[in-house]
Specification:
Number of domains of chain A: 1
Helix content of chain A: 40-55%
CATH class of chain A: Alpha Beta
Order of helices and strands of chain A: HEEEHEEHEHHHEHEHEEHHH
Low-confidence stretches of chain B: 1-7
Mean pLDDT of chain B: 86
Distance between the termini of chain B: 85 Å
Largest sheet of chain B: 4 strands, mixed
CATH superfamily of chain A: P-loop containing nucleotide triphosphate hydrolases
Radius of gyration of chain A: 19 Å
Number of strands of chain A: 10
Oligomer: heterodimer
Number of strands of chain B: 4
CATH architecture of chain A: 3-Layer(aba) Sandwich
Number of domains of chain B: 3
Number of helices of chain B: 12
Shape of chain B: elongated
Order of helices and strands of chain B: EEHEHEHHHHHHHHHH
Number of helices of chain A: 11
Largest interface: A-B, 40 and 38 residues
Strand content of chain A: 15-25%
Distance between the termini of chain A: 57 Å
Largest sheet of chain A: 6 strands, mixed
Helix content of chain B: over 70%
């Protein structure tokens, strides 16, 4: 384990790293292979995510979207190929100094929020602050309040326990915790799944606003075609164990049957028709 | 105060009282914010400051932006009129995002500090204990009525298969552990008894000690405590997990009575299993005792049995066994009740399982004491 002084050193270094903007590819996958037993999920995938962009990942159920995300953040060991984040190789050892250095520079929002159930929302947000900084309690309280405001949660939500929150509020609280250390890279796993359309829209706006204000790079797994349309710069479609990457307009021209189905199904058409009328 | 102007490695700020100017620079980031917070708090703010020059800030994140915003607000609160505020264009959106009218009170715990807080906690615990006692009593009533109905006028609501599954689960599967522990208790009791009684040359009364001690008290008590830990906790965990998964709600919407389906099989199953288990543990403890008497005191098995026959009657054992169904009822009742109290989170299952075991063991010992008093009054 790294001591507290070591943590501060790492945080300094992590932030110093943010100042030189040479690493244009924030995430770099090369020849990534993933699979379980005989089943291959990802067959030699390449992907580059650039600084400041929002990338959406879509694919059918069981296509391995979440596995891809988990591989990038080091929770799943790939069979073959390399994963680099901020120019740093991802290893399975989440506690190594190299990985901790990365863990400070990214924030992850899990599907259900993954809030620590024994702590209030405020305490949840303060967990990374307590671990990596030497802030006074009053400053931590202020920062936690700032994060709550950033994700649009009311003040009184801070004292609540996760079990007292609705699904949408849990996601917002999870996002506030993911943003606690002001990461440059944000991973979102199905951020709008299970939300009503209004909350989902608000969440889309929130991610857009935060991305502009903080200059975030966002890697987002989603099923929601409205979110894809409203938020993402590029979309990576996981189909036939490969990634097809492009903007929404490029993908609509794609001949692959699954992609055709996805973007021209009833739900897809409605969302995209709206987009076309906006464009005219 | 850090005044390394120009060096970008550390965040800095400089207050120029003469010009009424507060200059800032360097990386105002989360790594620097603990130090900046301390230094900014130590700063004397006066109303003659008219300019905040943050244009030399090389990097700003939301923590740094908050400190900047807080300082500006504090200056304005102190009566200063900020006419000039400069910040790199890049960071304007971030500051604007944070600078929304919102009551930013310091976080306050729900529990007031000091003596009032303690009083508050005592009050809350008392109310909680009271409510729980009432709920438990209501639950006891409901379950008793339904158990009675199921036995007296069965209307097909007795799930026999489920009940015998519970007998197997709580009784037969517990045989190895209960047997081993009872055997060891027998050995320990015989060994210690023999050691003390030898001084009076009354070794043979070891068997009396063993017979009365185990059959009347220890056999039933030890078995009930093991079962509370083994099966009571399982009841709470199973029903609790079902609650977390909405299975209980699903059962109710299908018109399935949860007491009939989940509680009664467990209660009746355990009421059948525990007396049998107690009898078994009595026998195992006697075997352990006889084993020890043979090797330690040289008392042969026939001699052991003859002395045991003198020492105890069937009544002694019945007094021990009659408590078992009551213990079983209490263990199963508490186990199921706490299971239904589980809230929709994982931590709650663990918490209530612990509570269920502690409450069952507590109740077993209290009831055992109550039985002792009743028996002594009745002269049994």
């Amino acid at each position: 384990m790294v001591g507290e002084a070591g943590n501060r050193q790492l945080l300094r270094r992590a932030l110093a790293g943010t100042e030189k903007k040479d690493d244009a590819e924030i995430i770099k996958l090369r020849g990534l292979v993933n699979g379980f037993g005989n089943k291959v999920l990802h067959d030699h995938i390449d992907l580059d995510v650039h600084r400041g962009e929002i990338l959406g990942v879509v694919g059918g159920s069981g296509a391995g979207k979440s596995v891809l995300l988990r591989t990038i953040i080091g929770l799943n060991q790939q069979v073959d190929g390399t994963v680099e984040v901020f120019g740093q190789r991802i290893t399975g050892d989440m506690d190594s100094p190299a990985m901790r250095y990365l863990e400070m520079r990214w924030g992850v929002l899990f599907q259900e929020g993954a809030l620590f159930s024994s702590q209030t929302v405020i305490e949840n947000i303060q967990v990374p602050l307590r671990e990596y900084t030497e802030m006074s309690q009053s400053l931590m309280d202020e920062i936690a309040e700032v994060k709550l405001a950033m994700v649009g949660l009311p003040c009184d939500a801070g004292d609540k326990y996760p079990s007292e929150l609705s699904g949408g509020m849990k996601k917002r609280a999870g996002l506030a915790r993911a943003l606690a250390l002001d990461p440059e890279l944000l991973f979102l796993d199905e951020p709008t799944a299970g939300l009503d359309p209004i909350s989902a829209n608000q969440f889309d706006e929130l991610v857009n606003g935060l991305q502009k204000a903080l200059g975030l790079t966002v890697f987002m797994v989603t099923h929601d075609i409205d979110t894809l349309r409203a938020v993402t710069d590029r979309i990576a479609v996981l189909v036939n164990k490969k990634l097809v990457i492009g903007t929404i307009d490029e993908l609509r021209q794609n001949k692959d049957p699954w992609i055709q189905d996805y973007f021209s199904g009833v739900r897809g058409r409605a969302a995209l028709a709206e987009m076309d009328t906006e464009a005219h | 105060m850090s005044l390394q102007e120009g060096a970008s490695a550390e965040a800095w700020f400089k207050l120029d009282q003469k010009d009424g100017r507060l200059a800032m620079g360097g990386p105002w980031t989360i790594a620097e914010s603990a130090r900046l917070d301390r230094e900014l708090n130590a700063l004397k703010l006066s109303s003659n400051i008219t300019e905040i020059d943050a244009s030399k800030i090389s990097r700003l994140d939301s923590s740094g932006a908050w400190l900047l915003l807080r300082t500006r607000r504090a200056l304005e609160a102190a009566g200063a009129k900020i006419s000039n505020f400069s910040l790199p264009e890049l960071y304007q959106p971030l500051l604007k995002n944070l600078d929304q009218p919102r009551k930013l009170e310091p976080h306050r715990s729900r529990i007031p500090p000091g003596f009032r807080g303690r009083l508050y906690k005592i009050g809350r615990a008392t109310v909680h204990a009271g409510t729980q006692a009432i709920e438990m009593l209501a639950y006891l009533g409901r379950v008793t009525v339904e158990t009675g109905e199921a036995i007296i006028k069965p209307r097909g609501n007795l799930r026999l298969a489920a009940m015998f599954h519970q007998v197997e689960e709580t009784g037969i599967n517990a045989l190895p552990i209960v047997g081993l522990l009872a055997f060891l208790i027998g050995i320990v009791l015989a060994y210690q008894g023999a050691d003390q009684l030898k001084r009076f040359s009354a070794e043979v009364f070891t068997i009396n000690l063993l017979g009365v001690g185990v059959l009347r008290e220890l056999g039933g008590l030890i078995t009930a405590i093991i079962v509370a830990g083994r099966s009571g906790s399982a009841f709470t965990a199973t029903i609790g997990t079902m609650r977390v998964n909405d299975e209980i709600d699903a059962m109710q919407t299908m018109g399935l009575n949860t007491v009939d389906n989940l509680v009664l099989p467990r209660i009746l199953g355990l009421v059948i299993a525990l007396p049998l288990l107690t009898l078994y543990s009595d026998i195992m403890a006697m075997i352990g005792g006889a084993f020890m008497c043979y090797f330690q005191l040289g008392i042969t098995i026939p001699a052991f049995l003859r002395q045991l026959h003198e020492a105890v009657t069937v009544n002694t054992m019945l007094v021990g066994l009659v408590k078992a169904p009551v213990f079983a009822f209490v263990i199963a009742l508490i186990g199921c009740y706490e299971g239904f109290q589980v809230e929709r989170n994982a931590a709650s299952v663990g918490l209530l399982t612990t509570r269920s075991v502690v409450e069952s063991i507590f109740m077993i010992i209290v009831l055992d004491a109550a039985f002792s008093i009743v028996f002594s009054v009745l002269g049994i």
